[in-house]
Design goal:
By secondary structure, the protein is an alpha+beta fold. Helices cover 31% and strands 25% of the residues. Strands 1, 2, 3, 4, 5, 6 and 7 form a 7-stranded antiparallel beta sheet that branches. Strand 2 and strand 3 form a beta hairpin. The longest helix has 18 residues. The chain starts with 14 loop residues before the first helix and ends with a strand.
């Protein structure tokens, strides 16, 4: 039986084009701020992954089940309800850092922020660095 192909992969759309299309204005401005922060912290250029994830770096994963693929190493998506930040690969405990972040919620490996005014961007930067370090201990990370 053939394995399903990953739907989230790099696209030809530029992150700048995507960010320019984000509505409303506040969400677009915050996406620009996050893009600048991710570029500053990682030193990498952004790449669109799928229709809405702005990613930085990449890694190749292979699970015990045999499923494998590529994904951005870190990134975010300015979704309607909140910004989804893909900065914690789920291998380490970041409770101490998260306690200093501000208003947020969590998914399995996503951090959700309604508006950037609710959080400390220096702590977001710290989480990006810590998440990349943690990911790099499990999978080799490639710059973008």
């Amino acid at each position: 039986m053939a394995r399903a192909e990953n739907k989230t992969k790099p696209t030809e759309v530029t992150p700048a084009e995507f960010i320019a299309s984000v509505e409303p204005d506040r969400k677009r401005e915050e996406a620009q701020t996050l893009d600048q922060l991710f570029q500053k912290v990682t030193g990498w250029k952004p790449v669109m992954w799928g229709p809405s994830i702005i990613g930085y770096g990449s890694y190749h994963y292979k699970y015990e089940s045999g499923r494998e693929g590529d994904m951005c190493a870190t990134g975010f998506s300015p979704r309607k309800a909140n910004h989804s930040l893909y900065i914690m690969p789920g291998y380490a405990n970041f409770e101490e850092v998260l306690s200093r972040l501000g208003k947020h919620s969590m998914g399995k490996s996503c951090l959700y922020i309604k508006k950037l005014d609710d959080v400390d961007l220096d702590v977001v930067a710290e989480l990006i660095e810590a998440g990349l370090k943690d990911l790099g201990e499990t999978y080799p990370v490639t710059a973008s």
